[in-house]
Design a protein that fits this description.
Blueprint lengths: L8 E5 L2 H15 L4 E6 L16 H7 L4 H7 L3 E3 L1 E5 L7 E5 L12 H10 L11 H6 L21 E3 L2 H13 L4 E4 L2 E6 L6 E6 L4 E3 L2 E4 L16 E3 L8 E7 L9 E6 L2 E7 L4 E7 L6 H10 L10 E4 L3 E3 L3 E2 L2 E3 L5 E2 L7 H14 L8 H27 L7 H8 L4 H13 L12 H10 L10 H4 L5 H17 L4 H8 L5 H7 L1
Parallel strand pairs: 1-2, 1-11, 2-7, 4-14, 11-20
Antiparallel strand pairs: 3-6, 4-5, 8-9, 9-10, 12-18, 13-16, 13-17, 14-15, 15-16, 18-21, 19-20
């Protein structure tokens, strides 16, 4: 065995969720064996639009030993069973991307092939109707899934909506209680080793120098260390994902506290609606080539479900990723690593998986090139698979009513995505090159929801004559509807388990 020397110090550059999530995870994993310093400036705002999540966020909190009820209360959170997409495949159209599976498999043939056969015979409802997540979501109901695999309640999953600023504050308390030192200040420069090019220290505007052996760049789009000093490079994906701006505004909490995110497509982009306990989060992601900032803001304000409680806030971005996420002795996390527009709520997830990979490949003072290469390989693969899933939403559309949608429908797409679509169009088969974040039910939801019509369903269906598929689909639809009606409403569940403090008390404490 070698004499590898463990790291003695880690410096995290930047706060917000991107900074305090790794601070919490590293302090939990490393204990007091390594000094962890986080540098942030209250003068630099955070993006703060990542208020909707996907199910793996539960695992991140659980690994830290965080109580779900406390977390939801402290972040003014609510629960999320999936995302409803409105006007994407066609205008006046809607479908649901659920967390969990469709129905319950009752044969060797995947359920969606039996559904396709039944639909061809005019004997099937929309695919959404065979999904427990939508059965509950469409009725405004929520309860955690059952652990009994025999129950239809075991077939769905859930995530959260929450205030990202409050989540960062919650994790800051967690991390500081475990020894993380926070330094207030704006970084003015970084010092690199003359021979290795490693970051040795960062220098604040007031001249304070903070040295470290390993640096985590959570500085947002500017990539203060990873790009401005280490020049890791950037791969631009805006030719596939053309939206480059967003405008966000909070509004009053809604009476109907729906347990899902809503994404509504407009002429030059799309609008999110995220229900929290104390407010509703809203935003319009758009392409500046096709609409002005003022027009985009007007579209957002005209389509709010509740009155706005603030002024619209603009955000500019460029979709893509770093060519190297980990370079020398610096790893980029969050927006410093890359940007995927929040269409499928992946922003916080990419922070989470970056942290998970970092812990799995955690360096010593030698900074193994093998570990760095593996981190970059895995992260690149994840970003590219998510990229393809997002492109599918834009490309698989029948809309031709505006320049954006005409351009997206006709654009060339990555070969990896082309291959997936070709398999589905041919025989409704869902193929993958390996483990992906979005698995078969997710791809199925978008492909079917946006009218990618298979030419045939699986030929095995014709050999399963003894299986009463249509009758079982009807029974499945009935059981989902009946079960959903027994669940508490989303608001009832929150009131009984994780009701947050009133807004007035929250404001007084901030």
């Amino acid at each position: 065995m070698g004499n590898a020397k463990p790291l003695q110090s880690v410096v995290i550059v930047g706060g917000g969720s991107a900074g305090w999530m790794p601070a919490a995870a590293l302090s939990h994993a490393l204990g007091d064996s390594c000094k962890i310093t986080l540098v942030e400036s209250e003068m630099i705002g955070t993006v703060g639009v990542g208020e909707a999540t996907i199910p793996p966020i539960k695992l991140f909190n659980q690994r830290l030993g965080i109580s779900e009820a406390e977390f939801v209360r402290e972040t003014q959170g609510s629960f999320k069973l999936g995302i409803q997409f409105v006007n994407w495949g066609r205008e006046q159209d809607a479908y649901f991307h659920p967390f969990g599976q469709y129905g319950a498999d009752f044969d060797v043939v995947p359920l969606h092939h039996i559904w396709l056969q039944a639909r061809a015979e005019g004997k099937a409802e929309s695919l959404d109707e065979y999904c427990m997540a939508w059965g509950a979501a469409s009725r405004g109901r929520f309860a955690p899934p059952s652990r009994d695999p025999r129950m239809i309640q075991s077939t769905f999953d859930y995530a959260y909506h929450f205030d990202a600023g409050l989540y960062a504050r919650f994790l800051r308390r967690f991390a500081e209680a475990r020894g993380v030192q926070r330094v207030e200040g704006r970084i003015d420069a970084a010092n690199l080793h003359a021979e290795t090019g490693f970051v040795e220290s960062v220098v604040l505007e007031n001249g304070t120098e903070i040295a470290g052996e390993f640096f985590v760049d959570c500085s947002g789009f500017r990539g203060l260390l990873i790009e401005q000093h280490l020049h890791a490079g950037h791969e631009d994906w805006s030719h596939w994902l053309p939206c480059d701006r967003a405008v966000a505004v909070p509004s009053e909490p809604a009476d109907d506290l729906i347990p899902y995110t809503r994404s509504t497509a407009h002429a030059a982009g799309w609008q999110w609606r995220i229900p929290l306990q104390h407010r509703t989060g809203n935003g319009h992601v758009y392409c500046s080539r096709y609409v002005s900032d003022d027009e985009a803001a007007a579209t957002l304000l005209e389509n709010l479900d509740t009155p706005a409680t603030g002024d619209p806030r603009q955000l500019r971005f460029r979709t893509g990723r770093r060519r190297k996420f980990w370079h020398r002795n610096c790893v980029a996390i969050g927006l410093a690593a890359g940007f995927m527009e929040p269409l499928e709520s992946t922003s916080l997830h990419l922070i989470q998986t970056g942290i998970t990979r970092l812990l799995a490949l955690f360096p010593d003072q030698s900074m193994s090139d093998l570990a760095i290469d593996e981190y970059n390989r895995l992260t690149r693969s994840e970003y590219e698979s998510i990229r393809d899933f997002l492109i599918l939403h834009y490309h698989a559309t029948e809309r031709r009513d505006s320049p954006l949608w005409r351009a997206c429908a006709s654009m060339s797409i990555p070969e990896t995505l082309e291959y997936k679509i070709a398999h589905f169009r041919s025989r409704a088969r869902l193929v993958s090159s390996g483990i992906e974040l979005f698995q078969n039910p997710s791809w199925l939801a978008v492909l079917v929801g946006q009218h990618v019509t298979p030419e045939h369903y699986d030929t095995l269906v014709h050999h399963r004559i003894a299986v009463p598929g249509v009758e079982r689909l009807a029974g499945l639809h009935r059981v989902i509807a009946e079960t959903a009606e027994t669940l508490p409403t989303h608001r009832q569940f929150i009131e009984q388990n994780c009701q947050a403090e009133p807004l007035e008390k929250l404001r007084a404490a901030m």
